[in-house]
Write a structure and sequence with these properties.
Oligomer: single chain
Shape: globular
């Protein structure tokens, strides 16, 4: 303290000049320190810059990626040929180059990779707006960012971007940089590079682009999402004022191409910029401004990638998603990187497991041959109309193939179903079509083979120009002027209308029904070891639908343990809590009904799950609140905060939504869940509430060998361990005596649960051992076709498929917080000799401290006279008295309040005493207590007394 005071006094004694020098020295030291720290930070960031070969910049985004199995074996080389649309700079029109330079980086030919003027302007604009509105990136910066870096807006990324940009400018000249940029830039709708964009939007080569078209494309890089000339919109988001110019298919889903007005507004800005900078003169500017750019939009037919098998298809989609997340970009960009970026994708697929599943599913037909065709085809209930078409009520689900297709898959319309007007308009009865958004889809076809197995043929939508056809007043009307331009659309043969298969998509290969899907997951790490998305396991064609990950079905009772009983257990309920499975009324209706077509009466929560009681599921959820179920579904990401899900809430549809007991308690949802969704749920419970992220990707390496994705240890606790363990134990007992009785995974101890919905269109079998979770689905592709086989067929299929996936594993012992008690199934209280005698006792598990302490008081011993079915008295002969244990409800059961229906466990306990064996009867027919009577006298009278006794009972019954 004294030293500080001395320094302070010495500083005061200095003159003004000396004080200024000291202050400047301190500021210099601070400045040097800041510069040193900043330099160290920059050096640290630059040292983490990805390894690059700038001399081969173009080839760096044109490499094949590779997929490896979990054992490191090469599964597939991902070819990138269809993306190789590189164009030499000399073949790119000057107007195209000038358009991009004008709007993106007009000082491109003057700076050395960084534009100080642009950066200063950007900083000023951002300060003024108090946000990151402008980035100030040069063409060189955009290039290195798209090839080597992510789209994260961080200081580190900007420093790396600047460093790489300076390096690029040292190695390449401006033409080389611009060539790489124009061949790599994201131009929306999956188009990367100017050639791909020219084909995507105009169906022409880049060399043929005019000024107006070049300006439209040059406006896209600022925001490919916002300035693409058209947007791809799902049917559910279409609006009346949208201008639809066509459709495209991505991952089996039809999307509508809708014109984007913002893109055309920005095109005008690009043209103005080109004019201001002198790239085009007044005459060119006016001509480009007035060019009908909207009419010039002519999207090409989009080609989907061909995936070889369900497993590799799944791996590619997963890898694309991870790359998109890593680089903070779109899914399309992630897929493009996968197909062109030279990545090494290490999958979790076990080749032996995958081959075993595929081999077994290849013989699925043999499984069907052992099922009955009594419902119309093997394992399915079919209804037919008079024309032998498969129907659901008045709706035709499938036409008989001979009724609608010829041998060349041309569409056949009989004379009675069409007419041609004098103007050439074609009028066809609408029963052959259905409207899907703005498309006119053709009803699919079917055949029943000689073994009575249903095979369906997929037929797509009519490929006609928008506005040329309309479904109206039960007819499809196709404009005569369109037909005049396309004379090969139809022909007349034998009075039948033959529509050429050139004008609709179709699959000539039949699809066997019912279909099935399966997922095998490692519980230790969440890795998908095997996946089957359908029965066509050997096809090399593009997959339209992976039924394991993309087919949404009503999960029914497969959901109930998670939406009802898990939140109930978390809420403090025990497996021994008792509810009454009796006819119930909700909203004035008799609802719900049970799958077993009866009502079982009082039962604990464990027994309610094992019996799959709809009544008790609805009661429990109604009691704890639907919000508890919604919270669980949010943790499983079935419901997402941003609404990007298939859960229909009340605000989306007030009449048909999922915020009700039908959907949440019973699983009869409007859209439903995928098999993959259910797999994640059961895997989480098998791990006592810890979710191991389910994925087919172990890791991904970039072209330089850096590991950018590592899924080796991704897990999070979703639910309370104790509640989860109790639910897990129910699944284990359920396999032995519940709704999945008989299900097993090889020779291992197994937990399992079966799901079925109210229409009986689907069966889900979800099982697990200590090491694996296996989920299986079976059902027809059309959810309007029900299964005719009972659940035992689904369990048999599950057992066949899972046979080699479990070898003698046992579950771990219960943790110390679990206690076991013998309880009464009717009261949930501690069992007694009476409940034991009645066969109503069983061993139940509780979290320590929640176990019951009171003894059962419902089961009691009664002596019943079999002749009167009333309580026995001292006058009833011993041979007529029965020892009976019965339970009596605490509150008398009123059948009138339950539609006159009695539950299966209903018991009558007599309140009155026997009125057959009265004192008078006893005096007349009772046993003789006179010991002096001789035995022979008693024997001689025995037969006579017995006859009198029998006659007396008959007389009393008649009086009654």
């Amino acid at each position: 303290m004294k030293n500080f005071a001395s320094l302070k006094n010495n500083f005061k004694n200095l003159n003004k000049t000396q004080k200024i020098k000291i202050a400047l020295l301190i500021l210099l030291l601070i400045f040097v320190l800041i510069i040193s720290l900043f330099s160290a930070l920059i050096i640290s960031i630059i040292s983490k810059t990805p390894t690059t070969d700038l001399n081969n910049l173009s080839s760096s985004f044109n490499q094949s990626s590779y997929i490896y199995s979990k054992d490191g074996n090469l599964i597939e080389k991902i070819e990138s040929l269809e993306y190789r649309t590189l164009v030499d700079i000399d073949d790119i029109p000057d107007n195209v180059k000038n358009a991009f330079v004008a709007i993106e980086d007009h000082r491109f030919y003057k700076h050395k990779g960084l534009d100080p003027i642009g950066i200063a302007s950007s900083i000023a604009a951002n300060i003024k707006s108090r946000s990151l509105m402008r980035g100030g990136s040069t063409i060189t910066q955009q290039l290195v960012r798209s090839v080597y870096l992510t789209n994260q807006k961080t200081l580190g990324r900007k420093i790396q971007e600047a460093y790489l940009s300076l390096r690029v400018e040292d190695v390449l000249d401006k033409n080389e940089i611009l060539e790489a940029y124009l061949n790599r830039i994201n131009l929306g709708q999956g188009a990367y590079g100017i050639e791909a964009a020219a084909q995507t939007y105009f169906s022409k080569d880049a060399v043929d682009l005019n000024i107006a078209e070049a300006a439209l494309l040059a406006g896209i890089p600022k925001s490919p999402t916002n300035y693409s000339p058209f947007k791809s919109v799902p049917e559910e988001y279409l609006k009346d004022d949208f201008k639809v110019i066509g459709t495209r298919e991505i991952d089996g889903k039809d999307l509508y191409m809708v014109l984007n007005d913002d893109a055309f507004k920005r095109q005008k800005i690009v043209l103005m910029r080109m004019h201001d900078l002198g790239y085009i003169d007044d005459k060119e500017y006016e001509r480009a401004k007035n060019y009908d750019i909207v009419s010039a939009i002519n999207p090409r037919n989009f080609k989907n990638h061909t995936m070889s098998t369900y497993s590799t298809d799944y791996i590619k989609k997963e890898a694309s998603r991870y790359l998109a997340d890593f680089y903070k970009t779109t899914l399309e960009e992630g897929e493009h990187k996968l197909f062109t970026g030279g990545y090494k994708v290490y999958s979790t697929i076990d080749e032996n497991i995958q081959k075993d599943l595929e081999d077994k599913y290849e013989n699925f037909k043999n499984f069907l041959l052992n099922r009955s065709p009594s419902g119309g085809s093997r394992m399915l209930n079919l209804s037919f109309d008079s024309g032998n078409n498969i129907v659901f009520g008045d709706e035709i689900l499938y036409f008989a193939k001979n009724n609608i297709l010829d041998e060349n898959f041309n569409l056949i319309i009989p004379k009675s179903s069409y007419s041609i007007s004098s103007h050439g308009d074609l009028k066809i009865k609408s029963l052959y079509f259905k409207e899907l958004g703005q498309k006119i889809d053709i009803i699919d076809a079917y055949v029943l083979d000689k073994n009575k197995i249903l095979n369906t043929y997929e037929i797509g939508a009519l490929k006609i120009e928008e506005g040329s056809g309309e479904l109206k007043n039960n007819y499809l009307i196709i404009d005569g002027s369109y037909l005049k331009d396309f004379p090969d659309f139809y022909k007349i043969e034998n009075d039948n209308l033959i529509i050429s298969n050139k004008y609709f998509n179709f699959n000539p290969n039949p699809v066997m029904q019912p279909q099935s899907a399966m997922i095998v997951v490692n519980n230790k790490n969440g890795f998908v070891e095997g996946i089957i998305g359908g029965l066509d396991v050997r096809t090399k064609n593009a997959k339209i639908l992976n039924r394991a990950t993309e087919s949404y079905r009503q999960p029914g009772s497969a959901l109930t343990p998670f939406s009802v009983y898990l939140p109930a257990l978390i809420d403090g309920k025990t497996l021994g809590d008792v509810y009454d499975d009796v006819p119930t009324t909700y909203d004035g209706l008799f609802w719900p009904h049970n799958y077993y077509d009866s009502f079982k009466g009082l039962m604990t929560l464990r027994l309610a799950m094992e019996n799959s009681s709809n009544v008790i599921a609805a009661k429990v959820l109604d009691e704890i609140g639907k919000d508890k179920a919604i919270d669980v579904l949010k943790k499983f990401e079935i419901i997402k905060d941003d609404g990007d899900d298939y859960f229909i809430n009340h605000s989306e549809n007030k009449k048909k939504h999922d915020e009700n007991l039908e959907s949440l308690a019973l699983g009869n949802m409007q859209v439903g869940l995928t098999l993959s969704d259910l797999s994640k749920m059961y895997q989480t419970i098998s791990n006592d509430g810890i979710y191991k992220e389910e994925t087919a990707i172990l890791k991904i390496e970039d072209p330089s060998g850096n590991i950018i994705i590592d899924n080796s240890n991704k897990e999070k606790r979703l639910f309370d361990e104790k509640a989860s363990h109790l639910l897990k134990d129910v699944f284990i007992s359920n396999k032995n005596k519940g709704n999945a009785i008989g299900a097993h995974i090889g020779s291992s101890e197994t937990g399992a649960y079966l799901g079925q919905n109210k229409t009986n269109s689907d069966y889900f079998v979800n099982g697990f051992t200590n090491s694996r979770t296996i989920s299986l689905w079976i059902g027809a592709d059309s959810p309007k076709i029900s299964l005719s086989s009972d659940k035992s067929s689904a369990i048999e299929l599950f057992n066949r498929m899972a046979k080699n996936l479990g070898k003698g594993e046992a579950f771990k012992e219960d943790p110390s917080y679990i206690v076991t008690r013998s309880i009464s199934s009717k009261s949930g209280k501690l069992a007694t000799k009476m409940s034991d005698y009645a066969g109503a006792s069983y061993r139940e598990k509780f979290i320590s401290g929640t176990e019951p302490t009171e003894q059962d008081n419902l089961f009691k011993k009664y002596l019943i006279c079999k002749d009167s079915n009333k309580l026995a008295t001292q006058f009833c002969p011993s041979e007529s008295v029965l020892y009976s244990v019965r339970f009596e409800r605490e509150e008398p059961y009123d059948s009138k309040a339950h539609y006159g229906i009695y539950p299966d466990d209903y018991m009558t306990v007599p309140k009155e005493h026997c009125d057959v064996h009265t004192r008078e009867w006893y005096n007349e027919f009772g046993e003789d207590d006179d010991n002096s009577l001789k035995k022979e006298n008693k024997d001689s009278n025995k037969q006579g007394k017995s006859k009198k006794f029998s006659d007396k009972i008959k007389i009393n019954k008649k009086k009654k």
